[in-house]
Amino acid sequence: TAAATPGHPHHHQTPATMPMSSADTQAAIKKLSDQYATIPSAMVVARLRKLSGTLLPAAGWDHMNSALVSVRDDASYSRRRVHLSDVSELLTNLHDTTAKPKNHLAPSAHASRSQILEGQQKIILPMQPFVYLYRSPHLVPTVDLIDTEVLVLVSKQRPKRVTMHCSDQRSYTFLAKAGDDLRIDERVQCVYAMCNRWMATSPSTSSSASAAASCSIKTYSVVPFDRTFGIVEWLGGTQILGSLCGEEKLSTHYPPSMPRDPAEYGPMYERLSHIAKHYTQHPLPQDGSALPIIDISQPLLDFYKSPHYKPYLRSALVALAPSRVDFFDSRLAFINSTAAMSLVNYLLGVGDRHLKNHLIDCRTAEIIPIDFGMCFGHATTDLGVAELVPFRLTKQMTDAIGPFYIPSLLHPMATALTAIRKQRKLLSAMLSVYLREPAAISRRVDAKAAVNVVEQKLSLHNPCDVLMGQVRMNATPSIAANLTGIDMVIRMGVGAQQAQAPTRTTHRLPFSKGEGQPMQQQSSRSNCLNSEQEMVETLLSMATDPDLLTLMWIGWSPAI
Question: pTM for the complete prediction?
Answer without folding.
Answer: 0.76
